[in-house]
Specification:
Helix content is about 40%, strand content about 15%. It is an alpha+beta fold. Among the domains are: about 170 residues, no CATH class; about 160 residues, L,D-transpeptidase catalytic domain-like.
Length: about 500
């Protein structure tokens, strides 16, 4: 056995593999309930014939000391070293280090316990530091980004790594943002009483550990708590603007939802307009868009407006459809004859003045009918709290955003003319004037219709939720507008 050479102790030459297997299996059975991944640990040792593979290799080459050192410094990530079993692991290793066994039978339980403790500690450390301690998709309302999580195949590879020291170094988060948080965390732990700041830092460090899709050289990010949109290219900022996002869901949402599920009464249905966290790619622009009004808005708002004012629909350019066919005169509909829970109508707001989407709608694939769009309510961008929409994202500078998206200057000029703006290329003024004459010709009724424009390429879009980050050496913090920090903090505390 390799330990016999390492200790130069004849005692280990009496090592009985069969006797050790019995002790190891008893230890594994008794400890399984307390392991984070018992099946993974068992599978690893079954593949290695239940031998003391992990300890004998990593003990002799010093890697086990390296693992213990990393765990002892896990507070740099905000974690409590005891979550990884530091005291027990260190005590077992010290017992083996002392090499003061009277007979080989005394070695077996120490070696077995050290094997299991070391394997468990590595699995936990790898999972928490490299992937993050929490799975946001299981905890957060409307979190739709696929976050890579550790699985059994991955964990067995980790346990099988020949160079543990190199691997532990490799998995350390190394982004400038994370390192800056670590320095601030260290400073705060030296006597600060600002518990809220500490909580915010720890929660956002956790976010940085999540394995999200890797950003490309050019991408757009919406940060919900900051109410902002930023276009990045090669680490430079091409554009930055304010946005309005979805309103926070009602207080007591979960309790009210349970009540609604029992009664099925729309009056009991709680509102949830929170903008989802997601990753997609912008693929097209609709100019002078039509708004297909969602059923939820039709039931909660349009129905009551039409009930109060029979001319509300025509005054707001809203068309009504029944079984796919346009209702010729919606002002004559007797709305009090219909239950809003079972409205047989669909509603669309036509292009042009007054459309809730403004002049531009920016499309990306998602399962929540969410998009970026212009708005007629420009005053809202001066509000500090801009969580006011039904879930879609209103952007402050839609024309600037459209210019960055389209394929070329010619296409951008065409887009400008569709919204009655002159082209930048003065040689196209004649074409623009003709288009404007056609729109204002009183002898022919002009009907404004949507126009579609493709993007120069599919631009990645992150709709993210970050409440703290570093900018030019300064820590920026934002209010936890949807309460997501609080949800994460409750679950994160068990690791701290």
């Amino acid at each position: 056995m390799i330990l016999a050479e390492h200790f130069d102790n004849k005692l280990y030459k009496k090592f009985d593999t069969a006797a050790y297997f019995q002790v190891f299996n008893k230890h594994l059975d008794s400890l399984s309930k307390g392991l984070s991944n018992p099946n993974t640990v068992r599978t690893f040792y079954q593949k290695h014939g239940m031998n003391a593979e992990f300890v004998t290799h990593h003990y002799v080459n010093g890697d086990l000391d390296t693992l213990i050192n990393y765990i002892s410094r896990s507070s740099q990530h905000g974690f409590n070293p005891e979550y990884f079993g530091l005291k027990q692991l260190s005590a077992l290793k010290n017992r083996l280090d002392a090499n003061q066994f009277e007979n080989i039978a005394e070695v077996y339980p120490v070696l077995a316990a050290l094997e299991i403790s070391a394997a468990e500690a590595l699995i936990k450390y790898h999972s928490l530091v490299y992937y993050g301690s929490l799975n946001p998709r299981k905890l957060l309302n409307r979190y739709y980004i696929d976050v890579q999580r550790p699985d059994s195949v991955n964990l067995i590879k980790v346990l099988s790594t020949p160079d543990l020291a190199s691997y532990l170094q490799k998995i350390q988060p190394s982004s400038p943002q994370y390192i800056a948080f670590q320095k601030e965390l260290s400073r705060l732990k030296q006597g600060s009483t600002d518990k809220e700041k500490l909580k915010t830092i720890l929660v956002n460090m956790e976010r940085l550990r999540w394995k999200l899709p890797e950003p490309e050289e050019e991408y757009v990010e919406v940060n919900i708590p900051d109410f902002s949109l930023t276009w990045f290219k090669d680490k430079d900022t091409l554009s930055h603007m304010k946005v309005c996002v979805g309103a926070r869901r009602e207080k007591g949402y979960e309790e009210k939802l349970q009540q609604y599920l029992k009664t099925k009464n729309l009056d009991d249905k709680p509102k949830n307009h929170e903008t989802p966290v997601l990753y997609s790619k912008l693929n097209s622009i609709q100019v002078n868009p039509v708004w297909n009004i969602p059923v939820s808005i039709a039931q909660s708002e349009i129905y009551y407006q039409a009930l109060r004012d029979p001319y509300y629909l025509s005054n707001n350019n809203i068309r009504v459809y029944h079984k796919g066919k346009l209702v010729a005169d919606p002002d004559t509909i007797q709305w009090n004859k219909y239950s809003r829970a079972k409205l047989p109508f669909q509603f669309k707001q036509g292009s042009g003045l007054g459309n809730a989407l403004g002049k531009f709608k920016f499309i990306f694939e998602n399962g929540s009918s969410i998009y970026l769009h212009d708005t007629n309510n420009k005053r809202a961008f001066s509000n500090n709290n801009r969580a006011i929409s039904h879930g879609c994202i209103r952007i402050e500078k839609p024309l600037e955003f459209a210019e960055l998206l389209v394929k070329n200057k010619q296409q951008y000029d065409q887009l400008r003319m569709e919204v009655n703006l002159p082209p930048l290329d003065t040689t196209r003024m004649e074409s623009f004037n003709k288009k404007m004459q056609k729109k204002t010709d009183t002898t022919h009724a002009f009907v404004l219709k949507p126009s579609w424009f493709g993007t120069k390429k599919h631009i990645p879009l992150y709709i993210n939720y970050v409440t703290a980050w570093w900018h030019n050496g300064k820590l920026e913090q934002r209010a936890d507008v949807y309460g997501q920090d609080e949800v994460l903090w409750v679950k994160l505390k068990r690791f701290l």
